[in-house]
## 1
Amino acid sequence: MSCNCQCSTDKKNDPRFQQLDEIIKQHKEQAGSLIPVLHKAQGIFGYLPEEVQIYIAEGLNVPLSEVYGVVSFYSLFTTVPRGKYVINVCLGTACYVKGSGRIMENLKKELGISVGETTEDGLFTLEGCRCIGACGLAPVLTVNDQVHGRLTEDDVPRLIRLYKLKEEQAS
Ligand code: FES
């Protein structure tokens, strides 16, 4: 599975793969290490492209078919690039009753994408989820780990502006 082409040199020089090497080293001897390693790898790369899955299979010495199986089974893992900010609109009953469907529609319009898609600039991914246990704040959405509650559909442009501004300030 491994090769001697330029890509292996590139990986050695890529700080993300160096970080992944460390994680593999820490988990290598532990039973059930595949899921935590995949989880951390997704944190580093933002998603799990095939080359990362192969790298992990080789590093942990597990069959590639097992890695593919786990990645495709758990919805937590994704093999397509996601945006820097992943917006998850809660579509659970309490939130839906209080208008999360309308918030979702406004987000689609504002971002020009559908659910499951990422904006062209790679900034936002839009997703829907079930109850996240914050029904008291309904309707809620999360942007990465940040929870935003008691929203209305009119809050959508302000919310997007907030994250765009954050991005401008960071660059
Ligand atoms: S239904 Fe949305 S947080 Fe519970």
Note: Strands lie at 85-90, 124-129, 141-143, 146-148.
## 2
Amino acid sequence: MTRVRATILAAPRPDELQVREDHVISFDDAGMITAVEPAEAAGGPVDLELPGTTVLLPGLIDLHVHAPQWPQLGTGLDLPLDRWLFDYTFPLEARFGDLGFAERVWESLLPGLLSRGTTTAVYYASTHEPATLALAEACVRHGQRAFVGRVAMDHPQGTPHFYRDRDASEAVAASARSIDAIEALGSPLVRPIVTPRFVPACTDALLEGLGELADATGALVQTHCSESDWEHQYVLDRYGVTDAVALERFGLARPHSVLAHAGHLADDDTDRLASIGAGIAHCPLSNLYFGNAVFPVRRALSRGLRVGLGSDIAGGSEAGLLPQCAHAVNVSRALTDGVDARLGPGRRGVDGSAIDILTAFWLATVGGAEVLGIPAGRIDPGHAFDALAIDIGPESGVEVWPEVDDWSRIFEKVVRGAAPTNITHVWVAGRRVGPWRS
Ligand SMILES: [Zn+2]
């Protein structure tokens, strides 16, 4: 049993800030929390007492990361999605056939995300089995909770000749071997995930085969869904139905499937995915570049759809989820108000779309955990001790003024204003995983 003493800030519901000042968290050898009590009631010694100028938050759950795009983070955002893929992204991902290069990237990516408080990540690797397995091994080694998927893509028009699976049956076989190899690592934290890139990159035979593979293995599924005008229309043209309907027919929209972006979902699609129990990786910054629309978080939540947050490295140009919380609020405000001043205020936006920073943080923690169906996202008994500590002291750069700030304002300043350097400790399943600074 390990005991940590800290002040905890969390969002157990989208509209509730939970403040637990000076509490003791106890967790067992598997990293599962057994008790959270006020320090004076808990009594006894603790293993670690965080300074009073520190707050503890539940770990951040990034539902959408393209691991091999780490080297192009912050660049290449000048093209629409289809051209961005062919001009920048597929050539970069193809390089991960070089295992040495892949391993060097993973050795930068993992500490980079953990030091920003990303305790769970859902990864697209590349099409290459060795690079995919090496990513899963890096997650095990660094102690990050992760879902790691070999990217399957075989469509002769939707992919370049130098970066695609040979055919559908070879692709399904490679994904099956990749799942077995990740399972064989025996890690309770790192799981395989079936990963058709998206409909335009996959033949019908591949989509069908991967639906069957998900059925046979019980692995979760991730893909992209109604991401942009082009991608959404492509699926309508190919099948005469929306992306959500097509994915369901192929057995890919399932309980806890992670569907990225979804800015072009119709309400029918939203209801369909909600009833299936699939979830959305909302990637607010990436959608500004590639989505052509703002995903309506509030409407989706009100219809019972599961939603969490994604950075979409590198379609989104920032790592870590604290910046994405602010972006989620910002884009929701743009959706509410609209953006073209020439339209009258009544016609400019979609009234009632705004979310606040609390809801955004809920998405990054509890929302993501519900999408994946994992016991994380909260600092409560029965959940894993996945957490990050943030320094808000006088030298931290987080401007806390006791004369004017209550906990609600401090929370907002932390989520909007804390820099990666303010993060002093990160734990996954009770194990300290960073940041390791010299
Ligand atoms: Zn993506």
Note: DSSP finds 15 helices and 17 strands in the chain.
